[in-house]
Specification:
By secondary structure, this protein is of the alpha/beta class. 35% of the residues lie in helices and 18% in strands. The protein has a single domain (3-160, 187-215, 252-267), classed as Rossmann fold (3-Layer(aba) Sandwich), CATH 3.40.50.
Length: 284
Amino acid sequence: MANVLIAGCGYVGSALGARLTAAGHTVWGLCRRPDALPPSIHPLLADLTAPRTLQALPPALDFVFYTTAPDGSTDEAYRAAYVDGLGHLLQALTSQGQPLQRLFLTSSTAVYAQSGGEWVDETSPTIPVHFSGARLLEGERLLLNGPFPATVLRLGGIYGPGRTGLIQRVRQGAAVCLDGPPIYTNRIHRDDCAGVLHHLMMLSNPDPLYLGVDDDPADQCTVLHWLAAQLGVAPPRIEASPGFDRRRRSNKRASNTRLVASGYVFRYRSFREGYAALLAAADF
């Protein structure tokens, strides 16, 4: 069994920690509000942006997962989360002589600038046009060029329990479809985020980079119409597409071929299975 630190133990990290402790691993959750952690996770009060709070990490760590999220949508917030905070943790782990087998970073498909519905994978060029993707890519490079064996998981849009805003918008008639070509979206259920990270931890020699997305990069309108049918409400109205819309900025199809080839089996292979589970649980 392994000693595991989850740094930035929030939505995904807490689900991962609960999964790992159930499998018999010892898990510490590092965050600024540890009172919200599941009881099976050892709380560790610290701030990744404050190096002095990282001076006494648990000893003899085998694996570290960096699953933090920015405090806001500014360049400064993204830099603090994915560059400064990661750098502080790497420095603390190094200075304490931690014998890590591997360090994992949850990044995002936002590092890709492709916006014409193209397929992207781990070999596709990453030339982000927005600061969010640029800071994520900066953090990836910091990790992969760092002192420990490392793996980056670029996640699609995360949904799951407590993240049901799309269901609410469809239910309330606030969701709209843009006319014109399809707008492809990439998703992954929170439980599969945790499952993928656990799976990669158990591999003897994982690759440095994977895309964490489900099997179906579905057109946004397909998702909205399916949800409307399941909820028994009117389908979303169609609006004229403006010259530029942020939804089209992320219009790409991400491939999970490498992840599936590694042996991971998705619990929710598409938005249909994932959202059906949320609807059945009335978790919205």
